[in-house]
Amino acid sequence: MSNVLIVHAHPEPKSLTGALKDLAVETLTWQGHAVQVSDLYAANWKAIADRGDFLEQAQPDRLSYVAESRHAFATGTQTPDVEAEQQKLLWADAVLLSFPMWWFGMPAILKGWVDRVFAYGFAYGVGTHGGESWGDRYGEGTLSGRRAMLSVTIGGRAPHYGERGVNGRLDDLLWPIQHGMLFYPGMQVLPPFVVYQSDRLSEAEWPTVAEAYRRRITGLFNDQPIPYRTQNGGHYDGQQVLKPGLGAGESGTRIHLVQPGDPTEVLAGTQIAVAATREMETCPGP
């Protein structure tokens, strides 16, 4: 069986978001998986990234958060709360982020978890940098071989987040999280589980939502991830710009999804990368 980390961000334990988190724990445990929950509000997680994150500041006169993050990770002088969350991520074979959408994004406490835990040398700044090499990211990196999924509750109606909806496409709104925070350090990202009109869900509607979420949780290690293009899979040029001929017929963030009409050599490179990822997924977690 596998290890699953749930990072949960909602201030009310009796909320719909909280009920989905509890259902995920119940379903995963029943399947035989080991589960850890980082309940950020319950833990009073420190969301602000500042000088207090570094036990030994390398440059005390002027704060460069990136430089201090790099120094702290390399020298083992990160704060215990940050290091504990990093160890949970390394332990996990899959990561679930559980949160309500507030103002078109995640709650500040969850963004602060990413800001502090995804340190330089851990989630970014990994691999060889120089020349045309931009490091191990977007499909590679420290968290490669793991899966990730969002569980998101939204107050608005589904059509508002559709192709022509006034709020914009949900895939585009979640792009910074799914592609920028999860795929960047190497995780394979599954399509999100979303509940719309969450503040108006009735008791009679809950069983249908619960069953749909159980199915998604049950498929956590089998369902197909979003087919993001890997950075080093041959899709991008030396400036990390999508090569000509790719993304035809699409626009916006969708040009960065592998498409059936892509040239054969690019698809072959992607298939090799996907095969390697799947092989890693069959290995025990660290």
What CATH calls the topology is Rossmann fold
Unreliable residue stretches? 269-286
Structural class: alpha/beta
Write down the Rg.
19 Å
Span between N and C termini? 14 Å
Tell me the number of structural domains. Answer: 1
Biggest beta-sheet profile:
6 strands, parallel
Which percent range fits the helix content? 25-40%
Tell me the number of helical segments per DSSP (H or I, 4 or more residues long).
8
State the CATH class: Alpha Beta
The outline comes out as globular
Instruction: Note the beta-strand portion.
Output: 5-15%
Task: Give a count of the beta strands, DSSP E runs of length 2 or more.
Answer: 8
Along the chain, the helix and strand elements come as EHEHHEHEEEHHEEHH
Task: Specify the CATH architecture.
Answer: 3-Layer(aba) Sandwich
Summarize model confidence as the mean pLDDT: 90
Name given to the CATH homologous superfamily: Flavodoxin domain
Walk me through the structure.
Helix content is 33%, strand content 12%. It has 286 residues and is an alpha/beta fold. The chain has a single domain (3-225), classed as Rossmann fold, CATH 3.40.50.360. The strands form two sheets. Strands 1, 2, 3, 6, 7 and 8 form a six-stranded parallel sheet that branches. It has a two-stranded antiparallel sheet with strand order 4-5. α1 packs across α7 (206-218). The protein is globular, with a radius of gyration of 19 Å. Mean pLDDT is 90; it is low at 269-286.
